[in-house]
Design a protein that fits this description.
Two copies of one chain form a homodimer. Chain A is an alpha/beta fold. The first copy, chain A, has two domains: 72 residues, Arc Repressor Mutant, subunit A; 114 residues, Rossmann fold, CATH 3.40.50. Chain A has eight helices and nine strands. A seven-stranded mixed β-sheet of chain A has the order 5-6-4-3-7-8-9. Chain A has a two-stranded antiparallel sheet with strand order 1-2. In chain A, helix 1 crosses helix 4, helix 2 packs across helix 3 and helix 6 packs across helix 7. Chain A starts with 7 loop residues before the first helix and ends with a helix. Chains A and B meet through helix 1, helix 5 and helix 8 of A and helix 1, helix 5 and helix 8 of B. Chain A binds a DNA duplex (24 and 24 nucleotides) through helix 3.
DNA sequence: TAGATTGTTAATCGATTAACAATC
DNA sequence: TAGATTGTTAATCGATTAACAATC
């Protein structure tokens, strides 16, 4: 449990390892070596070994590598896929609704327990079985339900206010889809998800061809 | 035009700068200095200066900084927001439909000209005015319309096949929302967008509190 | 035993940040 | 002129990759 510090990059690779291992398992492979995994995923072999060492509670065996099943269990445990976390989403627009409707979140350990919006037309409706409440109730709701993670899918102009209310309600981490950098205190983690940022990398590549 | 190599991190920050500058402009600010910008965006001041130097075609003036309007124009130019790029999307599920319905893409220089899916129920319908075609026609369509960027929103199992068809059709860059690492040749850029990866960073933070 | 694979220490690489002279 | 800000060179930091002894 008391793992050492794990780099952000390693964390982001873990879901790809997991997916790969699950595919292996469905083909009934029992063991896997880091070099094979590295080749299949187009990653450096030492990188894979270090990543695995960081999350695996058993050492690999020279010559044969790691047990697939154990590795899967360790990664899922590490990522918290086994104890579902309750989260709220603020902003029931196109993107917000898409996230609420996405079936894959339970598999990665999160469940939306409520959505929040300002639009009176939406308040007290449901999206995919999830109740939409007034943003006025956001802090209170989070505090009462002990919500620690909030997803922000409102336009940029409203994002900071929403963020402040989430934190006021006890949130410790924010998943921010608004194209703006939020101001938060040291101990709060903001993970930004910005379409324009990703696209920037793609566009530059295309412009250089 | 023949800019020097720009780091991926710099590229990803550019949209945040742009958004910030546009907000400034709407408040009628004429000039801005790197230190002020850095403070407002919670970034290191040298980082901001280097980023601006990389995209600005005019040097900043000591004491007064940069002209807001010029900076906006330079960043928009650099990111290609002024000449719209035609793209296709494959996989008209929840996420795919959300992206097709999102109004903000034209502002960041891309336009969906067609979506592709295997579901006969969807083929030949429209989503937000965008025609949905059969995946069988993907390569042909891309080649005919000279599409260089494809967005993949199909499940993991189908993603590699879709990727291959896009490249066969002439795509040079792939925006991949499937939770799998795609195999492509050296000259193709894949930008991965993986919910589980982002969430991993958030979960680990929450587990350590 | 021989050899593939492990875990770890050392070298490299790229990005960030600190230090500082040049300039308006 | 004095001082804020610029652009750039050097130092630091963290992540990646190379090298290698240990092990089954």
């Amino acid at each position: 449990m008391a793992e050492k510090n794990i780099s952000k990059h390693t964390l982001q690779r873990l879901p790809y390892y997991l997916h790969y291992l699950q595919a292996l398992q469905s083909e009934n492979a029992a063991r896997i070596s880091a070099p094979t995994m590295a080749a299949d995923l187009h990653l450096n072999e030492v990188k894979v070994r270090k990543d695995l060492a960081a999350v695996s509670h058993v050492a690999g065996k020279p010559k044969t590598g790691f047990e697939v099943e154990t590795l899967i269990a360790d990664i899922e445990d590490f990522l918290g896929y086994n104890n579902i976390r309750d989260v709220v989403l603020v902003g029931a627009g196109h993107l917000g609704r898409a996230l609420l409707s996405y079936k894959g979140f339970e598999a990665i350990g999160i469940r939306f327990v409520a959505a929040f919006d300002n639009d009176p037309q939406l308040i007290n409706t449901e999206i995919n079985g999830i109740p939409v409440l007034s943003t006025n109730e956001l802090s209170k709701f989070c505090r009462r339900k002990k919500i620690h993670l909030g997803v922000i899918t409102v336009p940029a102009t409203g994002a900071q206010a929403v963020c402040d209310r989430l934190i006021e309600g006890g949130a410790l981490a924010i998943w921010n889809f608004a194209p703006i950098r939020l101001t938060v205190s040291e101990d709060i983690l903001v993970q930004n998800e910005n379409m324009a940022s990703s696209l920037a990398v793609l566009s530059e590549h295309l412009n250089n061809r």
